[in-house]
Amino acid sequence: MTGRRPYTVWLGYVANPVTTAVYLERALRKLCRVITVGPTMPLEMCNAMGIQHPLVPLDIETSFMPDMQALLAALPKEDHPDLYLWVDSVGRFSHLPQHLEALPCPTACYLIDAHFNPEYYWQYAAAFDYLFVAQLHVLDFFRAQHRQSYWLPLACDPDLHRDHGISRMYPVGFVGGMNNNRERLLTKVVGVAPVQYERCYLEDMARLFSASKIGFNHASLDDLNMRFFELPSTGALQLFSQTVGSGQQLLFKDGEEIVIYSEENLAELVSYYLEHDSLREQIAQRAKLMVHTAHTYDHRVEDLLSIVFDNKQDSFSPDELRSRSLQFEQTDRDAQRGECGTINLSDGHPPQGQPFFRCIVSNRGYSDWPSWLMVYEWEDLLARVLGVSVLSYDAWEVSRGRGDHATGYELCFLQLAASLDRFPHDGRFVPVVMDVWRKDIEHFIQQIAQLELVFVTSLEAFRILQGRGCRQVAYLPYSFPDQYLLEELPEKDVDIIQFGRTNPVLDDYMRRLLQRFPLLNYVTTEHHQGALFFHSSRFGLLNASDTRSKFITMLRRSSISLVSTAGMDGSRDTGGFDPVSPRFYESLGCFCRLIGRFPETEEFELLGMNTFAERVDSYQQFERLVTGYLGRAFDRKQEYQAFLRQHTTSARAVLLENALHRVRGVRADSLGGRQ
Q1: β-bridge mates for residue 474, sequence order
Q2: What dihedral do alpha carbons 193, 199, 204, 205 form, nearest 10°?
Q3: For the whole prediction, is pTM greater than 0.90?
Q4: Nearest to 106 by CA among 123, 90, 87, 86
Q5: What are the DSSP calls for 278-318, one per residue?
Q6: Residue 225 contacts residue 203 (beta carbons within 8 Å)
Q7: Cβ(576)–Cβ(438) below 8 Å
Q8: Tell me: the pLDDT tens digits for 108-138?
Q9: How far apart are CA 95 and CA 387, in angstroms?
Q10: Which CA distances in Å does 422 have to 83, 123, 582?
Q11: Which pLDDT band holds residue 423 (cuts at 50, 70, 90)?
Q12: 354, exposed or middle or buried, with CB in 10 Å at 0-12, 13-18, 19+?
């Protein structure tokens, strides 16, 4: 928008001090000459909504059905618009401009609540040249009718929705309209913590959330409402309901920048985050930085104007918005490097001869299965530490088409060796391949022949490949995501857990154990109606295990975790490969005792995992360990924490960079001592 005359924008809405259009107007006035056009909200409606702020008429006050042709005739040419933007507000389509075709400019509408009745909105919105919808899950409906339809989510205004720096005296705060669903959910919250509820707006709303440790939010209909962005801007932890198709899971990660609840675990989550101040504040602060970096109305207005005036092909996708929202991390990283007198990579180009990762290529969106959700967490953490962006596969292909791959290396996690066939086999692509089994070795050697660097997560596979002369292969053990590190021992109310694929020998041991001790609470997973659920031997089907946060929460509640390697007891055809799986790290991170089936391998000894996991070879040994562990308090907190600090995901970034430097001849890899 720089370097050209300011556009004149006619902004049409119903004058109302708390409507979305007010925020858009504030942002537009920073870039454009804005003339507001429309009627004033009836006073009785303000009173009914409890709005105490004064009603100020718009620049051009009209009826609820203003005539655009008459307005043009009445105004001098210099006041004619370059864009007419109509915003869904009070009265909705009872406020509808007439004779839009008379306007000598593009027309656009911004639909805030179209998800409640898309068909109703469409019959009126069709008259505009551009349609912007706030809710992602109805975009396809409008795009099927109107080619120039775009997603433009709601946002925050940091000047209004700010942290007032006051004492957070309220355990939980809620601002918004009340309905049966919200009343029922808040009753569950009140059972564990007081809730401060007010129907307030603007600065008053920001003050309430600024005084709250947790801000409760609930979507009416799979929507990302205004509070979804406003609440974190105040520095409170956002507790938000699960939505489908909203983009929520891609914009903010559960347990990292937001906490997603279900009706079943709502009270438990409130109690947990009220008890863990540092974790709660860390998540809230991260979310605040993210919304200020990419989710303000200034950002939304820039996106809208770029589409209308600069021929931008589409608005930002959820993936792109997340990547943009994480730019604050690069700023922090650059500042820290500058303070330490070390290399500053803020321009994206290291000094001559220094190889670097330019991005992480992600398959996110491919699957929401637990193993993929785990990978997405690794990607986000490594991107943060390495100071790179995470690109979806489609966005990455576009960047390659521009030749961007020539400026750095591209890291990509692949679960199966066979997946490597669909990726380019040039030196800049660096895969981390998690499942390389003995039967894959011959083809794998051919697959990686043209690659400069390849990571495998199995030490056994690494040894064989090194023995076959594959000097570009490096070993990258699994890790534990940093955000789940605990300072204090969690409460335990589950005796034993075995998550995901079960080991047949451990299954038999548990069957026999439950016959002897039927009151044990043993949790496993089972498929139900197409989804994965927790199942208790005592209480039956529990809640869905559809997020990493829910999985980690259940694991933290468990005293003993049953673990096994992939190829043990014929669980999978690995050809005898038995790498240390992520479940071992996760179980340690949740302060579980580990009992399992795994061979005595070099990898277990190298990592030190054999000092924490108990290998069982008979039912008698299994029963003795279980009853012994359940009969005494946990006493290895410091040992677990010392181990985990060495094996966090962020710590693995050092291995990634060192391996890249090694293959480029810059310096030796720290893994080389054992390789």
Answers
A1: 455
A2: 60
A3: no
A4: 86
A5: HHHHHHHHHHHHHHHHH-BHHHHHHHHHHHHHS--SSPPPH
A6: no
A7: yes
A8: 999 999 998 999 899 889 999 999 999 999 9
A9: 48
A10: 45, 44, 25
A11: confident
A12: middle
